[in-house]
């Protein structure tokens, strides 16, 4: 079966000279949770940005390879075109609008699809069923909420755009272990119940391989290993170099 996302041999260059991705290929099946793993600077964020066409702002470009979503070449589509097709990115560092309330932040996610008030109200309810914490904090200004709540708000905002696939960059970053579990549990729930497909970048291999179905390990812009999450968890090299057990 054709994967939902098919990245084939992409190279990415920043500032015309710095070759950062050196031929990355990966597939994300519809309904999957796929993890992109690897250390600092391995190329995870760059891969996500290539898919969501957010490299230009960073003076980066895809110079080789193809990116197909549902069989369509998407390299020349703008980020709003992609959102319209159901591809939504949640950036690293939880980009919430600090001066807006949680609920206002969530509502900004619905604007791109021109939803009616009734639809927005229904979708807000849906987001609040997955993130009850956000409901209790709905009128709080995002700047005064916790890191975990801001991460949830960023994911909730992506959901308001009715995504088919969410690109999630380092969801665990800066969060306490218990909150990380809470966030990943919700990701798992959204995947199971709302049929949202996830491609997530994570330095926290342990947590990512606990929840993902499949993983790709990047090193210096290349995929050095990939496999079912369970097989990766049991692989001796992965244990030694990425899981901190040997
Ligand atoms: P991190 O977890 O630190 O975000 P990462 O695996 O996501 O790591 P990237 O952010 O994709 O890695 O970075 C890959 C490489 O590209 C790094 O060497 C980084 O310094 C370089 N890089 C990233 N953004 C730019 C940019 N805008 N201009 C030049 N080089 C960049």
Automatic annotation (TrEMBL):
Record-annotated ABC transporter domain positions: 5-245
UniProtKB keywords: Amino-acid transport, ATP-binding, Cell membrane, Membrane, Nucleotide-binding, Transport
Coiled-coil residues: none
Entry keyword annotation includes Hydrolase: no
CDD domains: ABC_TM1139_LivF_branched
Gene3D superfamilies referenced in this protein's UniProt entry, alphabetically: P-loop containing nucleotide triphosphate hydrolases
SUPFAM superfamilies linked: P-loop containing nucleoside triphosphate hydrolases (SSF52540)
Secretion signal, residue range per the UniProt entry: none
GO MF, one example: ATP binding
Family, as annotated: Belongs to the ABC transporter superfamily.
Protein name: ABC transporter ATP-binding protein
Provenance organism: Piscinibacterium candidicorallinum
